[in-house]
Amino acid sequence: MFPLLVLVIHVVVCIVLILIVLLQSGKGAQLGAAFGGASQTLFGSPGAAGFLTKITTAIAVMFMLTSLLLAFWSTPEKASLIPEGPVTEETVPASEEGLPPEVPE
Questions:
Q1: Cα 51–Cα 56–Cα 59 angle in degrees, nearest 5
Q2: Does residue 36 fall inside a structural domain?
Q3: pLDDT per residue over 52-89, tens digit each?
Q4: d(Cα 15, Cα 21) in Å, to the nearest integer?
Q5: What's the farthest any 2 CA atoms get from each other in the chain?
Q6: Any residues with CB less than 8 A from the CB of 23 and at least 6 apart, and which?
Q7: Residue 69 sits in which domain range?
C-alpha cells in the first residue's frame, strides 16, 4: 500500500515539476525587453523569480526522493552482485560418443 502511495505522489510531483519549469521564463525572454525596457519589473516585482526557483528546488528534491524510494522498493530482497559462499566448478566427464575419432600416429 505504501509503495503505491509513493508512486501516486511521484506522478503528481512529476507533473507539477514539468508545469513549474514551463512557467519560468528564461534569461532574456522577459516581455519587457520587447517594449524597450530590459527590466523584469515591468509587470511585477522581481521577487517572483526567486519564489519559483525555490519551489522548483523543493519539487525537484521531492522527485529525487520518491525516485530513490521506488528504486529501493523495486529491487528484490536478496539481490547482490557478490554470490554467497564459495564458487565451485563441477567437472562432468565427456561421453565416448561426443569425442572425435582418434587419429593414428
A1: 125
A2: no
A3: 889 999 999 999 999 999 998 887 777 667 767 666 77
A4: 10
A5: 99
A6: 52
A7: 1-25+47-75
